[in-house]
């Protein structure tokens, strides 16, 4: 078991060191015709590849095992945690209340920079809500959706300018 | 004079078009087999160009010259692009083979962003000067206003690779397996085709073609950076859709039409709007023929 993990991880290390070699190690300056060799980076790539590939294999095996167990069960599958929260009013009402309090208190506690980050996050939430309508409900993968984001910003800018 | 200008635009359009066609072939082959739009394909093109740049830079410093640099850099770039394409398929798409198509698509977009930022961090955000790998041919001196040697090399190389691809798909065993997988994946598996291997080979062939395109464009334009893959990828995807995605002659035709439309529009109307004309052609053709120029009308299976 552990030996097969080790073997596949070492293989991944060799493969990824090969793959990332020209990008991580060599740095060419084409103007002065000098080359910089950064050998230390190989070490990081090797360590990263070793552990990530072991983690990857473990997760994949777990997923496959989960899928086969799922097929064997007769009764209804357990509901996911997120679904349970969304469906049970006793759980999600208090969560909403806590969220509202956090939102109100947030600008008072944190400074302007952190508030601007949260505003950006909420803008993405709005974008995500809109995309959910076109992709999720209408089933149309609309990659041009962000164009409307730009149109809105541009129109606002022009109208406020003139 | 006027006709000479036209010829110049025409040749540069063909040049761009054949590059788009080379990249579009990768899109269309992958789409034909697993119905996945491989958004990371443009990044494979960028990686091919980068590896060629790095290798040729190192070789120049160690005193190689001329043609040996071109051959070595080209070979290594193709090998690396193939390796990246294979790895991409292995870690980003194979685990999602049975997942909904949207998940694989998002995974492809994610890999595209990942590869861009990987090159950005590991190398440089600046434009790098690409060494001129293609030599100047003296025969072409007299008509160099119309056709440069870079354009000739691009046209010949891409034509040769396209013919090679056609022969490979028509006559070789793996080509036959690819066509069978494209028609019906389950049936292909039943008659004993190793479908996973066929898909990997498809990715590898597409990546090699993209790397060829990357090297050619790099030495033609003379500079590259980590972001060149995005626009080339979008254009090549457009070309693939224009010709009917999943159809190999269609991708070549679409690429050439797109390149010509861009180049002629840039020459006669305005170079600032060349992208507008390229995508305008796409919209027009898709309105008139929704499945692309050479695409078959596919009935949606419910």
What does this structure look like?
The complex is a heterodimer of chains A (162) and B (302). In chain A, 79% of the residues lie in helices and 5% in strands. Chain A has 162 residues and is mainly α. Chain A has a two-stranded antiparallel ribbon. In chain A, a hairpin with a 4-residue loop joins β1 (26-29) and β2 (34-37). The radius of gyration of chain A is 25 Å and the shape is extended. Chain B has a two-stranded antiparallel sheet with strand order 1-2. In chain B, α1 packs across α9, α1 (2-34) runs antiparallel to α10 (248-268) and α2 (41-61) runs parallel beside α4. Chain B has one domain. Chain B is an all-alpha fold and 302 residues long. Classes of the chains: A mainly alpha (162), B mainly alpha (302). The interface between A and B is medium-sized, with 21 and 26 residues.
């Amino acid at each position: 078991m552990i030996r097969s993990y080790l073997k596949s991880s070492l293989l991944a290390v060799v493969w990824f060191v090969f793959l990332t070699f020209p990008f991580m190690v060599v740095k060419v300056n084409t103007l002065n015709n000098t080359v910089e060799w950064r050998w230390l980076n190989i070490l990081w790539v090797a360590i990263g590849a070793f552990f990530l590939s072991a983690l990857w294999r473990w997760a994949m095996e777990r997923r496959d095992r989960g899928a086969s167990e799922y097929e064997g069960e007769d009764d209804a599958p357990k509901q996911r945690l997120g679904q349970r929260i969304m469906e049970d009013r006793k759980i999600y009402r208090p969560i909403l209340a806590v969220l509202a309090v956090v939102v109100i208190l947030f600008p008072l506690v944190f400074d302007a920079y952190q508030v601007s980050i949260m505003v950006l996050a909420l803008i993405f939430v709005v974008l995500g809500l809109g995309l959910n309508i076109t992709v999720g409900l209408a089933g149309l993968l609309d990659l041009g959706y962000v164009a409307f984001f730009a149109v809105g910003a541009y129109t606002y800018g022009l109208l406020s300018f003139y | 004079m006027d006709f000479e200008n036209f010829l110049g635009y025409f040749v540069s359009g063909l040049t761009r078009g054949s590059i788009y066609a080379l990249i579009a072939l990768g899109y269309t082959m992958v789409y034909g087999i697993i119905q996945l739009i491989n958004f990371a394909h443009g990044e494979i093109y960028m990686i091919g160009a980068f590896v060629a740049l790095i290798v040729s830079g190192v070789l120049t410093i160690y005193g190689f010259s001329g043609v040996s640099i071109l051959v070595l850099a080209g070979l290594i770039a193709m090998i690396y692009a193939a390796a990246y394409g294979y790895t991409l398929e292995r870690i980003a798409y194979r685990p999602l083979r049975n997942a909904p198509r949207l998940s694989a698509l998002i995974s492809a977009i994610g890999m595209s962003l990942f590869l861009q930022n990987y090159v950005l961090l590991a190398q440089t955000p600046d434009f790098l000067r690409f060494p001129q790998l293609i030599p100047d041919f003296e025969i072409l001196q007299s008509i160099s206003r119309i056709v440069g040697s870079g354009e000739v090399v691009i046209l010949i190389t891409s034509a040769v690779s396209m013919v090679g691809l056609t022969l490979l798909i028509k006559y070789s065993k793996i080509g036959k397996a690819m066509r069978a997988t494209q028609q019906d994946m389950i049936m292909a598996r039943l008659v004993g085709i190793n479908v996973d291997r066929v898909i990997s080979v498809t990715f590898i062939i597409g990546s090699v073609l993209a790397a060829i395109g990357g090297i050619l464009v790099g030495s033609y334009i003379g500079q590259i950076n980590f972001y060149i893959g995005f626009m080339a990828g979008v254009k090549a995807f457009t070309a693939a859709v224009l010709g009917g995605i999943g159809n190999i002659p269609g991708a070549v035709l679409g690429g050439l039409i797109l390149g010509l439309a861009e180049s002629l529009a840039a020459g006669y109307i305005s170079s600032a709007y060349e992208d507008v004309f390229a995508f305008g052609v796409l919209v027009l053709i898709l309105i008139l023929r929704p499945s692309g120029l050479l695409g078959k009308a596919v009935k949606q299976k419910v």
